[in-house]
Amino acid sequence: MAKGALEAAVLDAELRAQGRSMGECFGAVRDWVDCGVSVGIAPTLEELLDEVTGYLEAGYRRIKLKIKPGWDLVPVAAVRELIGRDAMLQVDANTAYTADDIPLLASLDPFDLLLIEQPFAEEDLATHVRLAEAAATPVCLDESILDVTTAVDAIERGATSIVNIKPGRMGGFLEALRVHDACRAREVPVWCGGMLETGVGRAANVAIAALPGFVLPGDTSASGRYFAEDLTEPFVLGAGEHRGQMRVPDAAGTGVTVRDDLVRDWASRPVVTIGA
């Protein structure tokens, strides 16, 4: 991730000097990208449904539920009933399951999920292959995909039919572009994952999500979901025909400007220690 951050900074500086946007450099084919939201493990089912309802009202076009053993079938069934059969729903296990859970994960098929993301350990491609053979729901890999080599290997072995591209995890946007191109050449859909990016990282993620192979909504949520104040002008969801979408920055470089006043303010705040 440190390499990815440095690479992004160099790209930003070079593109600003050229007067080109990241979207133009990467090969973006759209001005707006569909946005999804990732929903964590809630304390109660009622709180989960309330949270999902709020995201639907905000306009998000896809819901992703985090699941783990003991928190899977019931919340998935409840959310599917809440949002209806036509709404996009997927689950993310973050490697929480083992081969013994293949029958349980296959039992998610009736809920018409877009995908099951990374159910098993990142190095355990063999078990992902077994699940792909046992279930109708597509298997998507996240943590297992470190670069174009691991992506192609997983695809050719049948361990994944959808890939989550996280540029930071891959060491930067140049490697992420290689993964995108390899997946597109093999007709494997991709989508853009996200972490706790400020507006700087979010801008670059939105730019790469505008490439032609990114055909599923990513985790590029609005700034307000994470920050009371962002380091840049906040990213917000569109309205009207662009409800549930985010605009791709078209200014030079990342297309956003860091708020120096906010950086100075944060840097000068005193450290407060709580407890002994």
Please summarize the sheet with the most strands: 7 strands, parallel
**Mean pLDDT over the residues:** 95
* β-strand number: 9
Low-confidence stretches are none
* Number of contiguous helices: 10
Overall domain count: 1
Structure description:
Residues 45-138 form the Mandelate racemase/muconate lactonizing enzyme C-terminal domain. Keywords: Lyase, Magnesium, Metal-binding. It holds the Pfam family MR_MLE_C. One of its GO terms (molecular function) is metal ion binding. The protein has 10 helices and 9 strands. Strands 2-3-4-5-6-7-8 form a 7-stranded parallel beta sheet. The chain has a two-stranded antiparallel sheet with strand order 1-9. Helix 3 (45-58) runs parallel beside helix 4 and helix 7 (148-157) packs parallel to helix 8 (173-185). With 276 residues, it is an alpha/beta fold. The chain is globular. 38% of the residues lie in helices and 12% in strands.
